[in-house]
Amino acid sequence: MTPTRLDKVATKVIEVFVACVVLILLFLLSTILIQGVPHLSWHFLTSPSQSFAAGGGIVDQLFNSLYLLVLTLLISLPLAIGSAVYLNEYASDNWLTGLLRTAIEVLSSLPSVVVGLFGYLLFVIHFHFGFSILSGAIALTFFNLPLLTRSIEGALAAISDTQREAGLALGLSAWRTIRGVILPAALPGIVTGVILSAGRVFGEAAALIYTAGQSAPVVNYTNWNPLSSDSFLNPMRPAETLAVHIWKVNTEGVTPDAVSISAGASAVLIIVILLFNFLARLIGRHLYRKMTGNSNK
């Protein structure tokens, strides 16, 4: 077989593999959306869930998921930026840096249920945080930190060394060069990584079962005092998220319309995650064009 013919065969095989992956993804998404979208309504999105009666919604679970996502990013993003800046801009290529990278890889490969049990033993039991949004956010920080660190480090590594040399040539310190030149130039990649990690956090369930809890107490959406026990902003209250709600309805649900609730909530979860991914691409492209002045990409 000639090299040209071999190249064509290899290309066709790769195209078949890609098509299989796309078809599997489309099958999963279409199945969930076809079964779930007909059950979506404004009432479903804005009404609280019901334990025994039919007609419940997911407003509390949806808000809990978004609140926990924001709190997780507030904790993990500064840590990830600091770690990525150190590893890419300051750390030497030695055994310590290799150990840090290995630790990040190991942390990223931990099963989410193990992270949840660790958060349960440390934060819920030892530190007496109880089942709360704060416990869940800290547990998800361990889950989210490696992904964020690697994506931000990749964004920083993509910046040309000439920009660093230009900043130093102008008499700027290394930190001022990083702060004023490197980080702004890497912003499109950083934002894309943050949004993609947000989609991963939003759909997490196993780690939150043991930390944020499996109950959604009635909260007052007009009470903005985070220290009040019934305030929707109270980080110390239990918070059943949307992903946990889907798991609970499928395993323990006794409502007459449990199947409809599960299908509708699954469709909402998939739609939000898809929005995160599309938003990451749109914002990344917009920021890239803005930073480079290139309107062709």
Automatic annotation (TrEMBL):
Keyword Transport appears in the UniProt entry: yes
Domain of life: Bacteria
Subcellular location as annotated: Cell membrane
Chain segments annotated as transmembrane: 12-34, 66-87, 99-123, 129-148, 181-202, 258-280
A GO MF label: phosphate transmembrane transporter activity
Gene Ontology BP term (one): phosphate ion transmembrane transport
Principal subcellular localisation of the protein: membrane
Keyword terms: Cell membrane, Membrane, Transmembrane, Transmembrane helix, Transport
Domain ABC transmembrane type-1, first and last residues per copy: 62-280
CDD domains in UniProt: TM_PBP2
Topological relation to the membrane, as annotated: Multi-pass membrane protein
InterPro entries: MetI-like, MetI-like_sf, Phosphate_PstA
GO cellular component: plasma membrane
Family: Belongs to the binding-protein-dependent transport system permease family. CysTW subfamily.
Protein name as it appears in the record: Phosphate transport system permease protein PstA
